[in-house]
Design brief:
Blueprint lengths: L4 E7 L3 H12 L2 E5 L4 E5 L7 E4 L10 E6 L3 H10 L3 E9 L3 E7 L5 E6 L1
Parallel strand pairs: 1-4, 5-8
Antiparallel strand pairs: 1-5, 2-3, 3-4, 6-7, 7-8
């Protein structure tokens, strides 16, 4: 079974300004999650949701990423390493939501793996 893309994230030094931009341009609904300092994006029917945030631990490379749903973060971290990628942010918990880690592919592109 393949792993679907389930979320995207835009990393910004000024997330409030960026959230206002995307809301104005695309009419995306923004829900601000104060406890996480995170703008949750509802991009509309048929699209995947996303978020806008300022990375707190870093620097995180790049400024945009996609998250791929997996059933076991540790298993997929191992697969990333075996295939020639590297883990750039270790497993982190998002309280009451799930767990993620970030990896770089062989070209240096950073993506996330997400487990609920």
């Amino acid at each position: 079974m393949s792993a679907p893309v389930v979320h995207f994230e835009l990393w910004s030094q000024d997330p409030d300004k960026l959230a206002a931009f995307y809301k104005q341009v695309f009419d995306w609904k923004m829900n601000f999650l104060e406890q996480m300092n995170y703008h949750l994006i509802e991009a509309g029917e048929g699209g995947i949701g996303g978020g806008i945030m300022k990375p707190q631990q870093g620097p995180w490379p790049g400024n945009t990423t996609l998250y791929i749903s997996v059933d076991d973060i540790e298993k997929y971290k191992a697969r990333v390493l075996e295939a020639g990628g590297k883990v750039v942010v270790e497993r982190q918990e998002v309280p009451d939501i799930g767990t993620f880690a970030l990896f770089a592919d062989p070209d240096g592109r950073v993506l996330g793996i997400w487990q609920q």
